[in-house]
Amino acid sequence: MSAERKFPKAVEVATVSLAAVVTGGVWLGSYAPRRPPLGLPAVLLVIAGVLLLAGIIMITRVTGFSWNTFVRVGRWALLAYVIAAGMIEFAFVRNHTRGAPLAVVTGMLVVFALDVPFIIATTVARYDD
Amino acid sequence: MQTSIVDAPPGRSRPRVQIVPLAGLPVVAGLLTFVVYAIASNKFWPLMLCHVAGGALWTSIDLFVGLAIGPIIGGMSPAARAEFSAKFMPKMVIIMPTVVTMTLATGLQIALHLGTLGLQNQTRNWLVASMVVVGIMSVIALGILEPANIAVLWEMNKPKPNPEIIGRMMKRFVYTAGITGVMQIATLIIMTRVATL
Fold this sequence. Notes:
- The structure holds two protein chains of two kinds.
- Chain A is mainly α.
- Helices cover 80% and strands 0% of the residues of chain A.
- The longest helix of chain A has 28 residues, at 67-94.
- Chain B is built from five helices and no strands.
- The longest helix of chain B has 37 residues, at 78-114.
- Chains A and B meet through helix 2, helix 4 and helix 5 of A and helix 1, helix 3 and helix 4 of B.
């Protein structure tokens, strides 16, 4: 059996998590500047968080996974996407988003800023010896 | 002896690929600082400059890479493809996230500035459609294209790169670049429609 087959679908699961936060972001953005209904984005946020966690658990179970490479790649990607997420957060705060909508936006941006580095670092590390 | 697609010519060592071109980072920092200024000041000209310049570059690069460069890379010999990728892909690592951030961050601000997302505004549905298109493109770009790009560069820096992994990741890069390139046509239609309503 090849390494491709044996590796769990952690990247795919994290990509679905990313799709969930992006969908929530589009939903919230489409209501701006009005206060958006938060039911759907909150559900998407929970789904995205659970999927990201599932992806992390999946790779912790891979024997011989290259954590060294994962950390080396992931920390720089994390820095880049924390900056990107920070700029998006700033745009929402600048436009007077407050209270529960801001909490949901912040949660989504946290998941977003973790999802992308996780996907990049896992994609690279899975092929490392 | 079998040669890999990233083997150096005889007598020469393979140069190390710089995954993130450090010389470009000050330019990126300058552009992002300008985006923060544009949003914080809410002045129309800086917002439009970031949005139009960033959007034009994003759309053009996606179309050009997806529909022109991608097929060319696909038709190259493995050695030529590896050499081209080693020089081309690090540039993409810093250019694309920068132009995307410039475009999206200021785009929302402009919509709020002009009130074009208001319920009664006739541009609202077009703008929501553009958000959906951008959402799909961003999942493809961030979830598939960019990881493949970094993985290729990382693999090339190994003492013995695996040509099968590089080939697979390059194929993924070329296909996803083609998909986002085609989707950018939808962005062009939507944005020109919004501008002429």
